[in-house]
Model the fold of this input.
Amino acid sequence: MFEFAPTGRTYSTKPGGSLFFPILATPTGEAAIRKLTTKPAELRGLMMPRRTRTRTEEHNERITAERRINEQRLKRQRWLFDELEKTPTIDGRGRTATVLRRPR
Done:
């Protein structure tokens, strides 16, 4: 077995997985493959489910849903910052322990 590095160098190895996992090296027997007993329907493509919305409509819906999620997140952030502004300061002179910037 040969492996080729991106640099162009060639390495040769021997498969040794059976040394570490001997259970995987045992033969499993013949594969049972059934033959088709009936011929596939000629119009089987017509049996596929139809789209309820076009790809463009799906795409626009995903964008709208993501924007809705982002708007809710920003609304919550604004509310949290408003609540933090209402909290009393440490020394009564307007200084707090952390400097927070309000998102715009």
Observations:
- The helical segments are 17-20, 55-86.
- The mean pLDDT is 80.
- Strands lie at 2-4, 10-12.
- The longest strand covers residues 2-4.
